[in-house]
Design goal:
Elements: H1 2-25, E1 36-41, E2 44-49, E3 59-62, E4 64-68, E5 71-74, E6 77-81, E7 84-85, H2 94-105, E8 110-117, E9 123-128, H3 135-141, E10 146-147, H4 149-152, H5 164-167, H6 169-175, H7 179-194
Parallel strand pairs: 6-9
Antiparallel strand pairs: 1-2, 3-8, 4-5, 5-6, 7-10, 8-9
């Protein structure tokens, strides 16, 4: 009974902090502005967030739908795995990365500890399996993602397989700001697809 009372009080404090901050600033306590969609209710129009923005250090639990090698959805909330970069689906090894993450998450309850939001509006989270296995670390160990030191502080760097940055060269190029490499790859892919 005491634990339940403590949880209710903590939930109340979180709600007060979260909604108090939203009402005073016009958005929640995350760094980027929220995107809105107009919704009509009766004769009044309200603006509602397109993607739910969650307070920092919020935990989402549930089964995951895997979008790609570093993104998933839990309870309709888009989540980007913390500190790593996996290839895009249309890049070399992109589908392998997605299916490896699917295999890790299949039949499991994922615990996503939200720590912020990325520039694409996804909630960035440290994600764990029930046994405490860090999904970001596992993807790096499998050789299907690389550490992104700018965001991770280098915590996954020691887990990278030898030569992995050459294998996942497009992800490496993105991290180093060489987006022209991406553009050349995409243009070549598009020209091949149109022939």
């Amino acid at each position: 009974m005491e634990i339940l009372l403590i949880l209710v009080v903590l939930a109340g404090v979180v709600a007060i902090i979260y909604f108090g901050k939203r009402s005073s600033e016009g958005h929640d306590n995350l760094d980027q502005p929220t995107s809105y969609d107009a919704v009509e209710v009766g004769r009044r129009s309200f603006k509602t967030p397109i993607a739910p923005r969650l307070p920092r250090e919020f935990v989402v639990k549930g089964s995951a739908y895997v979008s790609d090698g570093d993104s998933l959805i839990i309870n309709k909330i888009q989540i980007r795995l913390f500190g790593i970069d996996a290839p895009e689906l249309n890049h070399p090894y992109g589908k392998n990365a997605k299916w490896a993450l699917v295999a890790l998450c299949k039949g499991m309850t994922i615990h996503a500890h939200i720590i912020g939001q990325d520039t694409h509006g996804r909630n960035v989270a440290k994600c764990y399996l029930q046994d405490g296995t860090d999904l970001s670390a596992e993807m790096v160990k499998l050789g299907l993602a690389i550490d992104w030191p700018k965001f991770s502080g280098g915590v996954y760097g020691a887990l990278e397989l030898p030569g992995i940055r050459k294998k996942l060269w497009l992800a490496d190029a993105r991290q180093k700001g060489r987006m022209h490499v991406w553009q050349q790859f995409e243009a070549k892919q598009n020209s091949s697809a149109s022939q």
